[in-house]
Amino acid sequence: MARINPLKRRLEADEAAAGVLITMPSVNLAQVLAGAGFDWLFIDMEHGAIDLASAHHLIAATAGTGCAPLVRVPRPDLALCKPVLDAGAMGVIFPMVCTPEQAEATVRCVKYPPEGDRGWGPFYAPARWGLKGPMEYFQAANREIANIVLIEHIDAVENIEAIMAVPGIDVATIAPMDLAVSMGHPGDRDHPEVVGAIERAERAILASPAALGGMALSSAEANAKIARGYRFLVMGYDVMLIEQIASQLLDGLRR
């Protein structure tokens, strides 16, 4: 059966996928970013001002594009994951996965039995996925939903081999800023100790069936990471994009 999830299609073909994090509950912004060519949107319910209704709207805003809607929830909790999946999210992003037990919990949250514990209720997801109804969605969901864990604490790096041994992780993304904070180097993702921890995590992820993900704030950085094996690239966030463009427009303005 052909892939429904465009992100998993790219990863299966060993192609890089670029996305952007959105913190604003703006359907208009989501439509623009999805239509601009990003492969996925990172809808942030952990740090963004996005509630469940807004997340549903943002997921729907990606329809008609090749952009996969992904949602970050605060933790691997069935009560948090079920409604965003039922709204049509094509993947869930889990922060601060530091142990294999937490990694196992993420799998149970995104998969229907017998592989997981997800409950039945896909009332809206089939429409976003372009499927005929709940049963067609059910047959595809466990295969198509992307399970993405964030490696963003030194404890996760210390447990990285055990985490990556857990079946059912599709992407493991290294978050350097939180990692740096956890190591006592806030704001310094280039500190030698942080770089060393990132390199250890990279090796373990590349040796696993999961795709390697990370942050890249320019096409040059993204290309360098692709050459090192990265396939899931976080290219910034909405506030940063708007601030950068605004600064460029105002730079040199004589007023």
From TrEMBL:
The record's section on SUPFAM superfamilies has: Phosphoenolpyruvate/pyruvate domain (SSF51621)
Specify the protein name: 2,4-dihydroxyhept-2-ene-1,7-dioic acid aldolase
Q: Which UniProt keywords apply?
A: Lyase, Metal-binding
- What top-level branch of life does the organism fall under? Bacteria
Family matches, as InterPro entries: Aldolase/citrate-lyase_domain (IPR005000), HpcH-HpaI_aldolase (IPR050251), Pyrv/PenolPyrv_kinase-like_dom (IPR015813), Pyrv_kinase-like_dom_sf (IPR040442)
Q: Is DNA-binding among the key words of this record?
A: no
Similarity-based family = Belongs to the HpcH/HpaI aldolase family.
A molecular function annotated in GO for this UniProt entry is:
metal ion binding
Keyword ATP-binding attached: no
Annotated organism of origin: Thalassobaculum fulvum
